[in-house]
Design goal:
The chain is α/β, with parallel strands linked by helices. 34% of the residues lie in helices and 26% in strands. The chain has 3 domains: 64 residues, Arc Repressor Mutant, subunit A (Orthogonal Bundle); 173 residues, Rossmann fold, CATH 3.40.50.150; 127 residues. The strands form 2 sheets. The protein has a 9-stranded mixed β-sheet, with helices on both faces. The protein has an 8-stranded mixed β-sheet with strand order 10-12-13-11-14-17-16-15. Pfam families: PG_1098_Fer, Thump_like.
């Protein structure tokens, strides 16, 4: 990568002038007509488009350089990086798997010294350039394997962070920690010996219980979602922790941050009260469902559950400050074409089916429905069998 190219006035002006245009069309229109690398300029335009919502402050900074698209897709968002930055502050921070450098930057600026490691030369070059703009002199860049750096380092770190690569041969997705690169399980004792705290970002598809089996020392697992979509799972270990018992935290970064914490023991000992649907249906946040807080959620908010496997809850009284979506039931509705056509003549209704006789796509195709509008059809199993409820969301 020729960084001098990116600093040329013509290159930067071209990117700035064409940010709203189709990158593919720009390649065709300006091929052979520029004194700079057109492909590199068009790539920057495409990358900024991808980063516009995910990394808004970086996308708006014309001085920054963006890497290949996959690195942007796999990087943390600004929201989730800022959340992680609130977990720890201190003297020295080490990122073993720096990548694009988003987490390195947001976490590292809370520390007196921040070290970024990355084996990919181009990514390390991009990150080094961006760090000097965002935090001049703050970040130390090591271009090489983070585990090798750690093995040779004589330092003790307040925080060691890693986001192991989760794609195998043929772009296969990997969900066990031992299958990722680097293998955190094989290097755990090394990390533990040189850190006061370890923070791992792992796949949202990871089975938390499987991760704890692989690394029993983990003390906290945080399921992090943004606007009710699970984005990542964070695993924490602290040397001086008051308790070595596992705690689970489900956090949603929506309009307002919602958090729901529990222990595996609390979930195991909680009792579910089952019943037919009352005035309101409640769907817990996606982070809570991923975290497995099924029984404790109902018990803590005094809710009845429709079925052990439905994960919909109900109450007669409006639930305040609940970490989930609340729907008011208009009526139970018969899943027959004539009835659905009568109630939704244009076919616009949002469909949620869980623990139901068929899937949502099959249901919509069968009855000529498409998601849209304010109304919802929620299908699930209750004590008396499969039911479909016509509902409208209510703001908590």
């Amino acid at each position: 990568m020729n960084l001098a190219e990116f600093h040329s006035e013509a290159f930067q002006q071209f990117v700035l002038d064409h940010l709203e245009e189709d990158p593919a069309l720009l390649l065709l229109k300006y091929q052979g007509k520029t004194a700079f690398d057109l492909k590199a300029a068009v790539h920057q335009i495409a990358a900024r488009k991808k980063a516009d919502k995910k990394l808004p402050s970086w996308a708006q900074d014309q001085r920054l350089i963006f890497p290949v698209s996959l690195s942007i897709e796999q990087s943390s968002s600004e929201e989730t990086a800022k959340f992680k930055a609130g977990i720890q502050a201190g003297g020295t921070f080490l990122d073993l798997t720096g990548g694009f450098g988003v987490d390195s930057f947001f976490i590292g600026r809370k520390f007196q010294k921040a070290i970024y490691c990355e084996r990919n030369e181009e990514l390390a070059q991009v990150a080094s350039h961006n760090f000097e703009i965002l935090g001049p002199g703050k970040f130390h860049v090591f271009r090489g394997d983070g585990v090798e750096f750690l093995e040779k380092s004589q330092e003790q770190f307040d925080l060691i962070y890693a986001d192991p690569a989760r794609r195998g041969k043929g772009n296969q997705k990997l969900y066990k920690l031992a299958d990722c690169e680097p293998d955190i399980t094989a290097n755990w004792k090394l990390m533990e010996s040189k850190a006061s705290k370890i923070l791992l970002k792992v796949s949202p598809m990871l089975d938390i219980s499987q991760a704890i089996q692989e690394i029993p020392e983990i003390q906290r697992a945080t399921v992090l979602s943004v606007k009710n979509e699970v984005k990542e799972i964070l695993l924490e270990w602290t040397k001086e922790a008051e308790s070595q018992e596992l705690s689970i935290l489900a956090v949603d970064l929506g309009a307002s941050e919602q958090a729901f914490g529990f222990s595996p023991e609390e979930e195991s000992e909680a009792k579910s009260l089952f019943g037919e649907a009352e005035k309101y249906l409640i769907e817990p946040n996606a982070a809570i469902l991923k975290a497995g807080g099924f029984k404790i959620f109902g018990e803590r908010f005094s809710l009845k559950k429709l079925d052990a496997n439905s994960h919909f809850y109900t109450t007669e009284e409006f639930p305040l400050d609940i970490p989930g979506r609340v729907f008011e039931i208009i009526q139970e509705i018969s899943p027959k074409k004539a009835e659905l056509k009568k109630q939704f003549p244009k076919g616009n209704v949002n469909v949620i089916l869980r623990n139901y006789a068929q899937g949502a796509n099959e249901f919509k195709k069968k009855f000529g429905l498409k998601d849209g509008g304010e109304d919802f059809l929620i299908g699930t199993k209750s004590p008396s069998g499969f039911k479909v409820f016509w509902c409208r969301p209510v703001k908590s």
